Amino acid sequence: xxxxxxxASLWVLAILIGCGPATHAEDAAQEATVDSPAYASLAKGTFxxxxxxxxxxxxxxxxxxxxxxxxxxxxxxxxxxSAGEMIGYITSVxxxxxYVAIEVVTGTLAGRTGSFVLQHSSTMAQGEQFQSIEVxxxxxxxxxxxxxxxxxxTVEDGAHLYDFEYSLPEG
Length: 171
Description:
This protein is mostly beta strands. The protein contains three helices and nine strands.
């Protein structure tokens, strides 16, 4: 059975993945804990994203979750593409939702080519957003082996932006 989402539901999920009103990198940095790693570099740029609904079945779909395919094209300090899968859930309370996703990014960062995997886990509680997008440890390939980092997605004046704090081993 395919679950059809309303435009409002898609909007809420879009906010959570950075396609709606801006969340701010400064806010995410303030939420960092003492245990958060310090990253040596900051990559900035833009991206385009396409979301396509996916069929779900079983208890997850019956509970009201929805699945999507994500495809992005990055420009700026990170040049490349990504493909990912997302599962989201929208509650009956307006502007409360959450999603998890895995996104495989392939491209060039700081002149080094390879791929890495981002793990997303973000929520919105009655409009207040928390965004967590981290590089999965040891997921880097090619010249990006050893990459660590976290990404913050924002939208300003309709443009999709990323701030990617990262570290790479000396190469």
